[in-house]
Design the sequence.
């Protein structure tokens, strides 16, 4: 069986990794001038990829029992590849050469450690090629499902499409989070279960409903990262239902329940006439028996989590809850293994701002580059600050004086005072708004935090308040739309949903 073969290989590799950490062997190998760190890294990578295959085979078994033909085909392919390429004796013999000293430098019979390392890297490449094929099959299945309208209703689909959004430096994070959502074996407890070869316990743990919190400072990019994961092809292929709702500082349970229901199936205004218990029952019924992914954006308190999680059924089918929060205590309450979102690197910050301001060619004049890199250094790794500044520069990129002013202003802010840094950045963007647009921007303050604002309503209110100045042959509504486009281009307003023809809703 392929599963047994892979499990045996994992035991061999992990035993070798333990053996190579023995002080006696390490000192012996180091004395010969052999590079142990790259070798250990290769062995860890081999173990990582074997765990991937092991978890995949378990999931395939479950899908095959449900009559999934693609899972059956992939399972057979993996069986053939394991039998053909990953010969247990070959891997074991190569690792044993190191431990028992048979690699002796100068021996005529056996090649040195570097050659063994090279062969193990070849085995890792073979497994990674197989893993790529598996992931490609799942992506293809996701695309076919979308084309055939198999996926369940998702009214926020347009809101989560971010093709026009500039994203830099998130690829590795996206891959890791998708893997953890769809293949939970990366989590510590699961690895322990696998080492003990307790397959029944492994199945139960993997299939149990679990929350995965993304935790980090405000403005660090948690929501952007989560949206990318939510819309990833593998995520789409892995879950029958996906639903997304913003929780916010002061949570409203009824609005949260309705927001999730809206993602699952069409609703009418009559839903608001029902009480919380009735709406919760509808949600629970919709999710019962389905493999679902719930995305709860911006949770502030454990009370908000307790209010919603009791209505999410435990289907024991691998359903997941993705959460973003800025509070470590909330993240730890939800999971023993939260994902910590890291600050952007200086390189990523500069790439983001240069693409957004000067386009993909990134042909940045030297005088702007010197000041720009100093500015991104002052953004403290927060993408929100970078994006807002980039929005300002995109409309004023020919003004070197504005770039200097931004640099001087950020230079006066305490490097570690993140809230003040974000506030200062937003203030700079507001200060450089044309006078006639400042009132329009301030007017957003009449809406509650994280409120979804229909464009038609907003424009009608702007016109009624007298904020819109007549312009040539344009109607006041058309002028108002141009104001809104300007605010969006400056990254001061976030698009939540677009219509079929691409207009902001």
Sequence:
């Amino acid at each position: 069986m392929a599963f047994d073969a892979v499990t045996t290989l994992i035991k061999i590799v992990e035993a070798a990794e333990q053996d190579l950490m023995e002080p006696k062997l390490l000192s012996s190998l180091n004395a010969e001038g052999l590079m142990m760190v790259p070798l250990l890294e290769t062995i860890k990578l081999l173990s990582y990829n074997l765990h991937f295959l092991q978890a995949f085979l378990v999931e395939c078994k479950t899908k095959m029992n449900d009559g999934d033909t693609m899972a059956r085909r992939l399972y057979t392919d993996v069986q053939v590849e394991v039998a053909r390429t990953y010969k247990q004796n070959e891997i074991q013999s190569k690792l044993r050469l190191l431990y028992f000293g048979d690699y002796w430098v100068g021996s005529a019979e056996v090649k040195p450690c570097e050659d063994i390392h090279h062969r193990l890297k070849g085995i890792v490449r073979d497994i990674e090629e197989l893993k790529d094929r598996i992931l490609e099959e799942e992506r293809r299945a996701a695309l076919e499902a979308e084309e055939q309208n198999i996926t369940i209703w998702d009214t926020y689909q347009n809101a989560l499409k971010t093709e026009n959004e500039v994203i830099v430096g998130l690829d590795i994070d996206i891959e890791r989070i998708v893997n953890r959502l769809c293949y939970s074996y990366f989590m510590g407890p699961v690895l322990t279960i696998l080492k003990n070869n307790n397959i029944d316990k492994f199945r139960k743990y993997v299939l149990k409903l679990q929350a995965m919190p993304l935790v980090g400072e405000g403005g660090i990019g948690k929501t952007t990262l989560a949206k990318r994961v939510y819309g990833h092809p593998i995520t789409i292929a892995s879950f029958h239902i996906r639903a997304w709702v913003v929780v916010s500082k002061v949570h409203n349970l009824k609005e949260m329940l309705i927001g999730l229901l809206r993602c699952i199936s069409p609703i009418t205004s009559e839903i608001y006439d029902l009480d919380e218990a009735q709406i919760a029952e509808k949600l629970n019924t919709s999710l019962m028996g389905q493999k679902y992914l719930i995305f709860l954006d911006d949770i502030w308190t454990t009370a908000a989590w307790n209010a919603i999680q009791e209505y999410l059924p435990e289907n024991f089918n691998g359903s997941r809850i993705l959460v973003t929060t800025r509070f470590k205590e909330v993240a730890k309450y939800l999971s023993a293994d939260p994902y910590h979102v890291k600050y952007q690197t200086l390189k990523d910050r500069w790439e983001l701002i240069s693409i957004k301001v000067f386009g993909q060619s990134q042909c940045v004049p030297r005088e702007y580059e010197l000041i720009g890199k100093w500015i991104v250094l002052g953004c403290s790794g927060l993408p929100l600050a970078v994006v807002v500044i980039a929005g300002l520069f995109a409309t004023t990129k020919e003004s070197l004086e504005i770039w200097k002013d931004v640099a001087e202003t950020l230079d006066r802010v305490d490097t570690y005072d993140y809230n003040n840094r974000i506030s200062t950045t937003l203030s700079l963007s507001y200060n450089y708004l044309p006078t006639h647009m400042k009132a329009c921007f301030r007017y957003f303050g009449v809406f509650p935090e994280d409120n979804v604002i229909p464009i038609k309503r907003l424009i009608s209110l702007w016109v009624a308040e007298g904020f819109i100045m007549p312009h040539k042959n344009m109607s006041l509504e058309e002028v108002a739309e141009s104001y809104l486009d300007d605010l969006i281009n400056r990254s001061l307003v976030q698009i939540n949903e677009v219509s079929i023809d691409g207009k902001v809703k």
